[in-house]
Write a structure and sequence with these properties.
By secondary structure, the chain is mainly alpha-helical. The chain has one domain (about 20-145). Helix content is about 90%, strand content about 0%. The longest helix has about 120 residues, at about 20-145. The protein is rod-shaped, with a radius of gyration of 66 Å. It holds the Pfam family DivIVA.
Amino acid sequence: MPLTPLDIHNKVFSRGFRGYDEDEVNDFLDQIIKDYETLIREKKDLEQKIKNSDEKLSHFSNIETTLNKSILVAQETAEEVKQNANKEAKLIVMEAKKNADRIINEALEKSRKVTLNIEELKKEANVYRTRFQMLIEAQLELLKSDDWKSMSVDKDNETSTNEFNDGMINSQA
């Protein structure tokens, strides 16, 4: 068990025949007591500082552990967000491709229909042109025929006869 300043102070030495000078020993012991008390106080202060430092170290270690956990959670969350964003982006791209394919297919279908309509109209135009050409040629043949000439002479006679008849009817009235 370590000595205390009180132990040093209360220490009584036995007296011998030609022993040490009592005042000198007491002065020396007083000096030792003061130094020893100072050392004990410094030791207590240092122990308190160590205790405070240990508490702070423990506190900061807890904070460090908490921060490391938070960083890990944040990294995991960021990774999840990144993965979800990539998945969503892929879904958006796939949906856009589907829409693009659908629009292209609809446009191709409309183009085919328009092409078929154009072909049908060309056929109908050719048929109409052919019929119209045949009609005109038939009319030209009719105009060139001798029957037309005879109808024209009869028509002129008929017009004269009609005028004569009309004049007769008017004079009788």
